[in-house]
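Field notebook, page 317. I keep forgetting to write these up properly, so this time I am using the form the group agreed on. The chain and the ligand, aspartic acid, are recorded exactly as supplied. Prediction of the bound pose follows.
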Amino acid sequence: MTTKHPDAGPVLLIHGGAGAIQKGEATPEREAAIRKDLTRSLDAGWAILAAGGPALDAVEAAVRVMEDSPFFNAGHGAALTSEGTIEHDSSIMDGRTRAAGAVSGTSRIRNPVSAARAVMERTPHVMLTAAGAEQFAREQGLPLVAPWYFFTPERLQALERVQAARRTAAATTEKDRHGTVGAVARDAAGHLAAATSTGGYADKMPGRVGDTPIIGAGTYAHDATIAFSGTGHGESFIKGVLGHRIACLVELKGMSLADASRQALDELAALGGSGGFIVVGADGTAVLPHNTPGMYRGIARGGRKAVAIFGDDVLDA
Ligand code: ASP
């Protein structure tokens, strides 16, 4: 789960959600299309890092590609609430200054991560929610779309399965519920950034906000320590404040990133949560742990890149 790089050049990590992703479940064509979109996300972020650009631009660009893809639970293709509506959450954080921005409960902003960045850069606030966030996005000239743009047949079917299971008290599969996309990066100047975006959970209560827009829980970046983006049971990530927790273990306890991440994953499980996260350290160390059978993920470093889906896929970048 650890990729160390003593030369500490630029590095980009992405995730497209953790869950019960089993081999053979998707058709080969669908799996190939998912890998292609993960690679496109890496390419978008890496082009910026390779040109000497900032980590902040790289994570936003990588997340936007996955928001636009129908395969991940963010933007187009997001999970639906119990009312069959869209409520996106997203956040971004700049490790240089610990400036942060977030939006929650939006249903018309095409790329919530860019709205989160606008909140960070153009308001005195950290989070805007629902109608206020959409009004702000409109004023900033960010593209708004009709809510139907975000719907995919797969998410409608997943909601039907989860709701049918709820009616009969049957267990729901993680696959129908989990998602979220995120990116963390370290740029050539050694600055860190993180961004995360999600539709939350299938069948979530309207108004529910998860960990994704909560700074410290679902997203965190501080040049002195780490950049972090999580995916999984948001309530557990919030209770464990997992991104900030790892930063504290590294900074205050002097733990290695691998050990701190292992402890955070144990704490996630102890809180009853499943999921995973991507973290890059100030020295360029990268970890991508998860306690679910699979996690869509990828890494780019030194001009090489790799994507993975299943638990036993090895990432060599
Ligand atoms: N963490 C997200 C949330 O709780 C969902 C996920 O990553 O599966 O909203």
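OBSERVATIONS:
- The pocket of aspartic acid is lined by residues 17, 178-180, 198, 200-201, 210-212, 231-232, 234 (CB under 6 Å).
- Helices lie at 28-50, 55-68, 112-122, 130-139, 153-167, 234-240, 242-253, 257-270.
FOLLOW-UP: compare against the apo run.
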